[in-house]
Fold:
Amino acid sequence: MNSISGALRTVYGWWWLVLPPVSGVAVMAMIIGALVVAPREIVEGEVQRLLYIHFPSILAAYGAFAVVAVASVVVLWRRDMRWDAVARGAATVGVLFTGLTLATGALWGKPVWGTYWTWDARLTSTLVLFLIYAAYLLARAMADELDEAAARFAAVFAILGALDIPLVMFSVTWWRTLHPQPIVLRPGGNPAMPPEMLLVLLIAFLGIGALAVWLTVLRSEAEWLAKRTAALRAVADRYEGA
Amino acid sequence: MEHLMQLEFLFAGFAVFWAGIFVYLLLLQGQLRALQREVDRLEERLAEAETAAAPRPTPRP
Structure:
């Protein structure tokens, strides 16, 4: 068990060395690639370049919410509050990237569809996903840091909330939507885009993915420190009251 | 004209994205600062408690 713990600590230490430079370099390459290297899309024009931040952002959000769901299962199974800190940290990153996806999508939609927002299945289910985890974070913020029952209730809510992710993903195939069909992760098909665009998109996945992992690690660590500080405060209060 | 409008929306999209990341980092920094202050307060309380609990030197006859 100690060797596993030691290995995890080593990996964690490496993250701090690897993630900031990787995300920095990949994000710079993504910006140059998106604005300069990638060819201009014929139908939608320049605004289509928002794809390189819009699509990786929602994938980063899916990843973050998957981490929330897994960490929440561990909270219920092991009753380990360390994983509650991981779930909270990942949920903030998921809400951030879902919000950024909705915002960049609205700015992409206005010149292409003629409107910032429409109550179509993909947009609505994404908004619901954002609201579910915003409510989760609000509930966790209102509860005491050390309240384990609140952490378990929140874990159940987070696991149920993750059921919205497949709904968002498959909404464009299950219903008729204004949002376009998948062009990269197509069921049983190759990506429907030129290789130059695909390369820039892959770099964007790497950059925004690494940024999301780094922010999740930072935030989870901050949440864990907040829990430990709250526990120390409670001990100090008891000590002084005795 | 349409090309210029598209560039405006492209710029707005990238600006919103980076502003969002920047605001998130500012909020995280605020949380860490609040934690630092809390740890400082706890250290002060601990030092005061140790001082109060320490045995007083007995006066020499």
Q: What stands out?
A: Chain B has a mean pLDDT of 86. Chain B has one helix and no strands. Residues 16 and 22 of chain B are 10 Å apart (CA to CA).
